[in-house]
């Protein structure tokens, strides 16, 4: 009886401690977000585009990459984010080494990522100017499995997906947004952009949409395909405000 | 992801008869990631190493206890406690539509042997959200993993009338499985599967199987699952 009572007391203490901890964490995050007045936006998503064949493919299914820096998608992302955030924050222009942010990749060894911590923290401290803003919003490429297979896609891309009875073409803009505290450089908030409503994609955990063959970058210079450029631009314009809204950073809905 | 299903499985490994039982479906994955292919026989696993086409990590399986009092065929044989099998898995996709997977697990509890599962699956997307998969299966077990379920000692032989049998390890079963899945929308998915295996080696030669059971083991299952995000800070 006494042992049972001790167990109950211990369980109660653990539950109360866990609840208080959760509340404290929530409050800390909310408090930090509310204290933010000035923000700088960094985007390193739009330097290149991938082209992949997936599903029922032949053995040659390697992913190819095309440069699309001339589309100025990072400037577009910063512009969209600035417009979405301006109602709540004072957005200040910042300069940064875009290539340094774009070069960071996750290790395939999960423990290594855990030990390394957030890889963008040091870059925000050293590669962004001016320092001293309340927060820095960093938008970088995200990675996702495609469908139920093992292949992963990243950032901006075009996937040609073959099934037994039909083929599909899909474009995607996979990115994640981190909010860094401007003083401690800790991550206050982080989120991968979710799929858009009613997008009808084959199986991606981020923004994408089905397109027809005329959007394919395989025919000629990808950067000169205006259909593709327009569709990617439209995805970004729809997704960025929506994701910032999901993070409770912007009220655009 | 949570869900529910039903599986028509042999009463126990080596049994002639089967029964329908409910199967809960529960899995956790990182928010913002999609479900990867999973075979019905796969153990619970986490990919700590993930190169995309090559994945590896820890794996574990729970094997429920076998009570002699539950089925008349087992009367006189001792109970086998529940077992937790812990180990690792490696899977490799040479192309998107073909997965090979191997698991090696050490039993703790009801048996203390080693179990190795090998499988291959052709994964064929038929249309956008409808996928069929099928492939061969093979299992090998050590003597310590086989003996508690298929061995018959002198006392058990006296109690059951079956001959004494010293079950050794080795090739345990070979078979094939097939699965169909349909994703209704980003949240809901339904699936059905059939797995057939034929017991081999001493598992097939055990009097429990030759006299009272069958080496042919078939499992049929259906299920529906619902995916949702839970945000934990």
Q: What is the overall silhouette of chain B?
A: globular
Task: Give the helix level of chain B as a range of percent.
Answer: 10-25%
Characterize the main sheet of chain B: 12 strands, antiparallel
Number of strands of chain B: 12
What distance lies between the first and last C-alpha atoms of chain B, to the nearest angstrom? 19 Å
Structurally, the number of domains of chain A stands at 2
Q: Main sheet of chain A, how many strands, which sense, barrel? A: 5 strands, mixed
Class derived from helix and strand content of chain B: mainly beta
Q: Total number of β-strand segments of chain A?
A: 14
**In oligomeric terms, what are we looking at?**
heterodimer
Q: How much helix is in the residues of chain A?
A: 25-40%
Number of helices of chain B: 4
Low-confidence stretches of chain A: 1-5
Largest protein interface, residues of each chain: A-B, 41 and 34 residues
Q: Report low-confidence residues of chain B grouped into runs of 5 or more.
A: none
What is the CA-atom radius of gyration of chain B, in angstroms? 19 Å
